[in-house]
Design brief:
Number of domains of chain A: 2
Radius of gyration of chain A: 23 Å
Number of strands of chain B: 5
CATH class of the largest domain in chain A: Alpha Beta
CATH topology of the largest domain in chain A: FAD/NAD(P)-binding domain
Strand order of the largest sheet of chain A: 6-3-2-10-22
Number of strands of chain A: 23
Distance between the termini of chain B: 34 Å
Largest interface: A-B, 27 and 23 residues
Low-confidence stretches of chain A: none
Distance between the termini of chain A: 18 Å
Strand order of the largest sheet of chain B: 2-1-5-3-4
Helix content of chain A: 10-25%
CATH topology of chain B: Ubiquitin-like (UB roll)
Strand content of chain A: 25-35%
Low-confidence stretches of chain B: none
Radius of gyration of chain B: 13 Å
Strand content of chain B: 15-25%
CATH architecture of chain B: Roll
CATH class of chain B: Alpha Beta
Oligomer: heterodimer
CATH superfamily of chain B: Beta-grasp domain
Largest sheet of chain B: 5 strands, mixed
Order of helices and strands of chain B: EEHEHEE
Helix content of chain B: 10-25%
Shape of chain A: elongated
Chain lengths: 336, 111
């Protein structure tokens, strides 16, 4: 089992910076994030967008801020469990939390800091009323094992890289691949767009543009997708699997079942130290709420800084903490 | 009617119509107006045209600025997109759109 001082849920800017402030107090951190990469929204949603309100940076690209934060926290050797969603928590005999991820990884820590942003990123699901009935029954939002689709008839929807890449790859093993997209232009990488056009020209795939899925049918298992094409109207396409790739969207997820006080998808905290109603669990950044809350990265940094002071007292109640400036003390990282 | 206040009619996802007033001198966009009116529009990305939670249909004949490529790219990731689909966060509240009528589209991250 992984053991640490502060278990941080969410490796976005706020979670990353927590490692630095905790490290100054000689506290170790381990981060868990549902995404396979660090940076949270900054990496997943807007890596190429400039941010103008990070103190000292007149303008910085979101992706660069993540890189800088990683460099800044590197001396404190944080642990990472990426691509796994924090699922459940329990207490052990020593009164520490044990967190279990959806893949069964377990991490033990006396303090949990939830820096979960807007929640964990999950595939954007179809708002078609009966769609949930077909999840894992022909409706697949993710490709876990491509072999599942060998010799099957597939309908793929979307215009980004996921839709294009899977169309190209799965066209080699599936018996039939149809790609539908709402426009005639694609936003995916140019060489993928060209490859898909070639496959369509060679009749290796069916490409239907200006078309969208409007319904799904089946009896227990999905067997037909209703597609609306701009000029041809509605058509029914018989398939074994329907794979819509409409990007990712954040969901609060399992955290909502941890007994925390939640208002409007945000965790209530005491602004004294950003503690929640569950002793030992803190919430910082976009995921918390309090009077006057602003969802700003810079506010999250402030919250992280005050939070680790409180976490220190909790972890080492017998020790006195004297406040030191980095300018005086420098940054003394961990050896291992 | 004050000259800096316009009226917008918003039909929610249950088909109920709401008439809301919106100030034109505060740099608001339609997504924010929906939120202020307590309508279920999440605005997850904060108005960067990066989440489609404010996807709506423009029902009236107002001439709006053409959607940008970013907005079109994001609409690719929305559902039930029509010719009159827009992202509310990309519609600036100005005097030109007084009387605008919109309808909220179905989204997956409604609570």
């Amino acid at each position: 089992m992984i053991k640490t001082d502060i278990l941080i849920i969410g490796a976005g800017p706020c979670g990353l910076f927590t490692v630095f402030e905790a490290g100054l107090l000689k506290l170790r951190c381990h981060l868990v994030d549902a995404l396979p990469i660090t940076g949270g929204q900054l990496s997943e949603v807007y890596p190429k967008k400039p941010i103008y309100d990070i103190p000292g940076f007149p303008s910085i690209l979101a992706g660069d801020l993540v890189k800088n934060l990683e460099e800044q926290i590197a001396p404190f050797k944080p642990g990472f469990t990426l691509g796994e969603r924090a699922e459940s928590i329990e207490k052990n005999a020593e009164d520490n939390f044990i967190l279990t991820t959806n893949k069964g990884t377990q991490i033990e820590a006396p303090v949990i800091a939830i820096a979960g942003g807007l929640g964990c990123f999950e595939p954007r699901r179809l708002p078609i009323p009966n769609a949930t009935d077909f999840e894992e029954n022909g409706l697949e939002y993710m490709v876990k094992d491509p072999e599942k689709f060998r010799d099957k008839r597939l309908l793929i929807a979307g215009g980004g890289d996921s839709a294009l890449d899977w169309t190209i790859e799965l066209s080699q093993i599936a018996s039939e691949v149809t790609l539908i997209h709402r426009r005639s232009s694609f936003r995916g990488a140019l060489d993928s767009v060209e490859k898909v056009a070639e496959l369509a020209k060679a009749n290796k795939i069916n490409l239907i543009t200006e078309a969208q899925a409007v319904g799904i049918n089946g009896n227990g298992k999905l067997n037909e997708v209703v597609v609306k094409q701009k000029t041809q109207g509605e058509m029914k396409i018989e398939v074994d699997y329907f794979l819509p790739f409409f990007g990712l969207t954040p969901k609060l997820g399992p955290i909502s079942e941890w007994g925390l006080n939640i208002t409007k998808n945000a965790i209530e905290v005491d602004t004294l130290d950003y503690s929640t109603n569950v002793p030992g669990i803190y919430a910082i950044g976009d995921i918390n709420t309090y009077q006057g809350k602003l969802k700003l990265i810079l506010c999250g940094f402030h919250e992280a800084t005050l939070m680790v002071q409180s976490a220190f007292k909790r972890i080492h109640p017998e020790q006195k903490l004297s406040f030191k400036y980095t300018t005086v003390m420098g940054v003394n990282g961990f050896e291992e | 009617m004050s000259e800096n206040i316009i009226k917008i009619k918003i039909t929610d996802r249950e088909g109920k119509q709401h008439e809301v007033e919106a100030p034109t001198d505060m740099n608001f966009n339609l997504m924010e107006i929906c939120q202020a009116a307590g309508l279920p529009v999440k605005g997850t990305c904060g108005g960067m045209a990066l989440c489609a939670s404010c996807h709506c249909y423009v029902l009236s004949n107002h001439e709006l600025k053409e959607p940008s490529e970013d907005e079109e790219d994001m609409l690719d990731q929305a559902f039930y997109v029509e010719d009159n689909s827009r992202l509310g966060c990309q519609i600036a509240i100005s005097n030109d759109i007084d009387g605008l009528e919109v309808q909220l589209a179905l989204v997956d991250d409604e609570d």
